[in-house]
Structures are given as C-alpha cells and as structure tokens.
Specification:
Elements: H1 2-9, H2 15-19, E1 39-42, H3 48-53, H4 60-69, H5 73-76, E2 82-84, H6 105-116, E3 124-128, H7 130-137, H8 142-147, E4 156-159, H9 167-172, H10 175-193
Bound molecules: iron/sulfur cluster.
Iron/sulfur cluster (SF4) binds next to helix 6.
Protein name: Uracil-DNA glycosylase
Pfam families: UDG
Domain Uracil-DNA glycosylase-like: 30-185
Length: 195
C-alpha cells in the first residue's frame, strides 16, 4: 500500500503530454485513499486548484459535492472512511476553450485496478461524471445513467460532475435535487454509520 502510494506519487507517465499544454505543468498526482475506506468517490481528474493544493476537491466542485453528500470536510477527507480515486490523478491541462482536458486514459489503465484492489471495504461507489461511468459501468450517456440512478442502488450512485458547468443541467432536471440527493445523503450516512 505505501509502495503503491509512493509509485503513484512519483509517476511521470504524462510529463511530455502536460508539457505540451498551455499551462506546461508537470505531473502532480493527487491520490487519497486507505484500505479502510467504505465510500469510493470515482471522480474525473484534478482541476488547477487541486493541482496547486495537492488535496482533492479543494474547489467549488468539492464544496458542492460535500453538500450533495451531506458531509463536512472532516469526514470527506478522512481516508479511513472515504477514498477519492479519480480517473486520472493529475490535472490534465486546458483545451482551447479553457475547459479541462479529459483525464489521460493511460492513468486508469496503469493504476486503477491496482488501487481498487487495495480497497476491500468499499460499500458505496459514487461515479462522478461520464468518464467514471464509462469505466465502472461500461456505459456512456450521463443524463440517461443518472436518471436511472435507482438501478444501481445500493452499491453505486451515478452523479453528474459537480462543476459549475453543470448548474444548467441540474436546473433542467429537478428530480436530481428532489429525489436523488436525499437518497444519496441517506445512503452515505447509512454506510458511514454502519461499523
Ligand atoms: S495522470 Fe496518472 S499516469 Fe499521468 S502522470 Fe499523473 S499519475 Fe501518472
């Protein structure tokens, strides 16, 4: 486990790719997990703020995700309860429109199975965004998958990415806040309370 963390922290597989982006940044893997974790947050990839802080979801998306889950930072960052394992551990850079580039596929290919194999106690997986849904469910189409969130209970709950870019999506689908979020908070609490 410590070896794996060390290997990830020192990974430079995407160094050339990142050097060619507008920000010309170096890899800075942000991995946050321990074998005791019971909830897995399968996210997308760090944004620039997380790249700078070295801690996952230290941005408005994180504030929104914690609100969705009904928990504070103390529980969110407690690796004995929650593992945060995105589809790529490093900030991928920006595209020409200023949006984050997709997570480099090589990251999940290289690390994901190895990391998930160290997490035997996961009882609830939150699939945050389309990349995580594709990998974990083998399906695409965020709206379709999230609107059928009941199909995946009790072990998986699919969510749109909590980015401000999805605010219009959330407004357009009122069942998300009315039905899915109460069920999410209830299931998160149930898993956290079940020792
Ligand atoms: S994104 Fe993943 S594969 Fe690429 S450098 Fe970072 S840790 Fe390595």
């Amino acid at each position: 486990m410590d070896n794996l963390m060390h290997e990830i922290a020192n990974c430079r597989l995407c160094a050339d790719r990142f050097a060619q982006t507008q920000t010309q940044h170096s890899p800075r893997p942000v991995a946050w997990f321990s074998p005791k974790a019971r909830i897995l947050i399968a996210g997308q990839a760090p944004g620039m703020r997380v790249h700078q802080s070295g801690r996952p979801f230290t941005d408005p998306s994180g504030d929104r995700l914690r609100d969705w889950m009904g928990i504070g930072s103390d529980i969110f960052y407690d690796t004995s309860r929650i593992a945060i394992v995105p589809m790529a551990f490093c900030f991928p850079g920006y595209d020409a429109k200023g949006a984050d580039l997709p997570p480099p596929a090589i990251c999940a290919k290289t690390w994901r199975d190895r990391v998930l194999n160290t997490l035997p106690n996961i009882r609830l997986t939150l699939l945050v965004g389309g990349h995580a849904m594709k990998w974990h469910l083998g399906k695409t189409g965020v709206t379709d998958i999230v609107s059928n969130w009941n199909d995946h209970l009790p072990h998986v709950i699919p969510l749109p990415h909590p980015s401000w870019r999805n605010t219009a999506w959330i407004k357009k689908h009122p069942w998300f806040e009315a039905d899915l979020l109460p069920a999410l908070r209830s299931r998160v609490q149930e898993v956290l309370d079940d020792n």
